Amino acid sequence: MTTYEDRLAAFTGRVLVERRFGPDPVNVPMIRHWCEAMGDTNPVHLSDEAARSTGRSGIVAPASMMQAWTMRGYAASTTPADIGAFDELVALLDEGGYTSVVATDSDFDFHREARPGDDLSVEEVVESISAEKRTGLGTGRFVSTLKTYRDAAGEVVATQRWRTLRFRPSAAPRAPRPRPAINQDNEFWFAAAREKRLVVQRCTECKTLRHPPGPCCPECQSFAWDTVTAGGRGTLYSYVVAHHPPHPAFDYPLLIAVVELDEGTRLITNLTGVTADDLAIGMPLEVEWLVADADLTLPLFRPVAPQEH
Asked: I need a labelling partner for 102 at 20 to 30 A (CA). Which of 13, 138, 165, 280 fits?
């Protein structure tokens, strides 16, 4: 029985791209546009006189343009075509889960410079397909090919050893939860949360509890305060079900609630362990701590089991 490895190995030495001519011969306008885009000021690419002064017969194309002369262009590359060896190899690599690609190496050997009027072609042959490798991008295989560029007479102008990594992308780490705006007035609350303690600010003059934290009591305007530890129980006062805009740190739909604590203050939090269909105003809730990372722990709330209330 032919194995997957055998099927991959069968591509070694196979022609991936039959000899194909570029859409246009080498020409001075394209050379000029290329040099302007690349900031290449070498006069041999733009002036016959300058080129002849170096012993050349006239203008020559920059070596870095070699691939550009045989590229089919966007429209041609998106037009359906007969399935060829290249498409077969890509399909086989996709079958193995190697669905992503990145170029890794390009090694050119130039036999002569390309000149205006040259009608260039390219042929590509598979040199090797590596065994499976582990990389920083994911597990994959290096595919090495040899591209041969020829003029209209079939003479070799350049060769290019081209290597790509076809890989299974590693699962991206979950985006970090957005940072809260921590300041001198609320830092104590987040510090307590890191210890999994839910606290409420209290005015030491009139004993009024308040949340969110602030520097001054809204009842008596005193700046003196301390905290009390909340029991972690409350009821659902209000909620919204958020679908947009999505943020990669959250699962959607996202349940955002106003919870009224047994102590009487309210806080905005996320709900867990429940779906939107099961929510009901006034339902009993209890705290569940989310350790987002080493610096951030937050209180979420979940429904209290029926036997617990």
From this structure: 13
Residues 152 and 67 in one domain: yes
Q: Are residues 138 and 199 in the same domain?
A: no
Average per-residue pLDDT for the chain:
93
Asked if 103 and 202 sit in the same domain, the reply is no
Please confirm whether the linkage preceding 246 is cis (ω < 30° from 0).
Answer: no
Phi and psi dihedrals of 147, rounded to 5? Answer: -100, 130
What's the structural domain count of the chain?
Answer: 2
Amino acid, single-letter form, for residue 83? I
Q: Indicate yes or no: pTM above 0.90.
A: no
Predicted confidence (pLDDT) per residue in 50-66, tens digit: 999 999 999 999 999 99
Q: Are residues 194 and 293 in the same domain?
A: yes
Q: How would you label 88-105 residue by residue, b for 16+ Cβ within 10 Å and e otherwise?
A: ebbebbeebebebeeeee
- Tell me the C-alpha distance between 293 and 180, whole Å: 13
User: CA–CA separation, 190 vs 184, rounded Å?
Assistant: 11
On whether both 205 and 151 belong to a single domain, the answer is: no
Q: In sequence order, which residues have a C-beta less than 8 Å from that of residue 145 and are 6 or more positions away?
A: 16, 124, 125, 126, 127, 161, 162, 163
pLDDT tens digits for range 253-268? 999 999 999 999 999 9
